[in-house]
Design goal:
Strand order of the largest sheet: 2-1-3
Largest sheet: 3 strands, antiparallel
Order of helices and strands: EEHE
Domain DUF1659: 2-62
Helix content: 10-25%
Shape: elongated
Organism: Macrococcus carouselicus
Pfam families: DUF1659
Protein name: DUF1659 domain-containing protein
Strand content: over 45%
Distance between the termini: 9 Å
């Protein structure tokens, strides 16, 4: 049984003088359990507009209850 769905959005926070990137992730927990991949990508675009951050990936993580 699916218990919780989390949307993880990753962006590049900074780049050092050697070109190495520091990545950070924003997590949005308890999103709708029936969220589709296309809706997750749409949310990624909307949140990007609000925050001004350019997200390089979107990931859905499922938490399931195992009895």
């Amino acid at each position: 049984m699916l218990k919780e769905l989390t949307l993880n959005l990753t962006y590049v926070a900074s780049t050092d003088e050697n070109g190495r990137e520091t990545k950070k992730t924003r997590r949005f927990s308890q999103v709708r359990l029936d969220l589709t991949d296309s809706q997750a990508l749409e949310m990624k675009g909307l949140i990007s507009e609000l925050t001004g951050e350019d997200y390089i990936s979107a990931e859905l993580t499922e938490l399931k209850l195992v009895k």
